[in-house]
Write a structure and sequence with these properties.
The chain has 179 residues and is mainly alpha-helical. It has one domain: Up-down Bundle (Fumarate Reductase Cytochrome B subunit), CATH 1.20.950. It contains eight helices and two strands; from the N terminus they run αβαααααααβ. The protein is globular and about 55 Å long. The two termini are 21 Å apart.
Length: 179
């Protein structure tokens, strides 16, 4: 365990599954992007890995520990917009787990990554083999992953700066400063 994790006031927030999921998903998506034009076997295997991770994360969102559960961070549009307004005004509250905007980003990423994996798999089936429109949807969803990932990284940078805590390190060792 790191010195940071055992420092006074630090609490465990992100469990090993959430942290492993996060970094493995990032790695597999990168492999998918790097192999979009081949080798197809590696691209497809990575895509199946992505699909499996998404399925496991959805399950973990219902049975995992507190901060991994959807009930802890998924909020309605009003709460997300109110949080963003408070952020813009410099009065946003700090959350131990994900803030409402971060929760909305997780949902958007899960849906987009899931749609990308689904449309990729469908292209391997007899019903959709060679389907140009499905390939276009797959490519648009894959591009949207990059857009969402850029917004996600920007949000992590802003929140890390605003609350003076390194959220990347927290996603590595699982610990954040307690309230």
């Amino acid at each position: 365990m790191s010195d940071r994790a055992t420092a006074p006031g630090m609490v465990k927030v992100w469990d090993p599954f959430v942290r492993g999921f996060h970094w493995l998903l990032l790695t597999l998506i990168a492999v998918c992007w790097l192999t979009e034009d081949g080798p197809k076997t590696l691209h497809q295997a990575s895509g199946y890995g992505v699909a499996a991770l998404i399925a496991l994360r959805i399950l973990w969102g219902f049975v995992g520990p507190r901060h991994a559960r959807f009930s802890d961070f998924v909020r309605g549009p009003r709460k997300v917009l109110a949080y963003l307004a408070a952020l813009r005004a410099g009065r946003e509250p700090r959350f131990l787990g994900h803030n409402p905007a971060g929760g909305a980003m997780i949902v958007a990423l899960i849906l987009t990554v899931g749609a990308t994996a689904l449309t990729g798999w469908l292209q391997t089936t007899d019903a959709f083999w060679g389907s140009e429109w499905l390939e276009e949807v797959h490519e648009m969803a894959a591009t949207l992953i990059l857009v969402l990932a850029a917004v996600h990284v920007a949000g992590v940078i802003v929140e890390s700066w605003r609350h003076r805590e390194n959220l990347v390190t927290a996603m590595i060792d699982g610990h954040k400063r307690g309230h």
